[in-house]
């Protein structure tokens, strides 16, 4: 277990540095291609609810996707981290204007926003899980806090990973609690892994 933690720590540093050195215009172009690939999938078109994130530290920019989903009549929820511990919940938003700076300096829904419940889904639900890197098996390299793996576990909600092809690797170290996504999308391909 210690070895996996050390490997992940080194990889986080490597991919964080790599991401910070990306040319911004090139990054915007890749982001657009990745989002367009996602929007072309039936997984997106027939979804009722999208669980998204507000991009930080060079993550793939999904703010246009948030706006597009809301305009299309989909329900959109973003994560909110509690003020203590490693607890995260998703809350619905009606607009990006509903967000405020939260616990980790990340834009998140207000505390009084309607809570999303995994136990009472109103229709097909898809979560897009942010990461520094993914491997071809669908495992991700996150930021090391385990919020997403703990929250979703084996919930049955469709999971999607968006990643630049140069950040997609053959195999990342993962432990028994790490969860693989169902679909991986790069600017070059869509790879179906799970259900």
The main pleated sheet reads as: 7 strands, mixed
Which structural class do the helices and strands define?
Answer: alpha/beta
How many E-type strands? 12
Shape estimate: globular
Query: Which band does the percent of strand residues land in?
Result: 15-25%
In N-to-C order, the SSE pattern is HHHEHEEEEEEEHEEEE
**Distance N to C terminus:** 29 Å
- List low-pLDDT spans: none
Average pLDDT level: 88
Radius of gyration: 16 Å
Q: So how many helices?
A: 5
The helix fraction, in percent, is 25-40%
Strands of the widest sheet, in order across it, are: 3-2-1-6-9-11-12
In terms of topology, how is this protein built?
Elements: H1 2-20, H2 24-39, H3 42-45, E1 49-51, H4 63-71, E2 75-81, E3 88-93, E4 99-101, E5 107-109, E6 125-129, E7 133-135, E8 140-141, H5 147-152, E9 158-162, E10 168-169, E11 183-185, E12 190-192
Parallel strand pairs: 1-2, 1-6, 6-9, 7-10, 9-11
Antiparallel strand pairs: 2-3, 4-5, 7-8, 11-12
Give an overview of the whole structure.
There is one protein chain. This protein has 195 residues and is of the alpha/beta class. It has helices at residues 2-20, 24-39, 42-45, 63-71, 147-152, and strands at 49-51, 75-81, 88-93, 99-101, 107-109, 125-129, 133-135, 140-141, 158-162, 168-169, 183-185, 190-192. A 7-stranded mixed β-sheet has the order 3-2-1-6-9-11-12. Strand 1, helix 4 (63-71) and strand 2 form a beta-alpha-beta unit. The longest helix has 19 residues, at 2-20. It is globular. The mean pLDDT is 88.
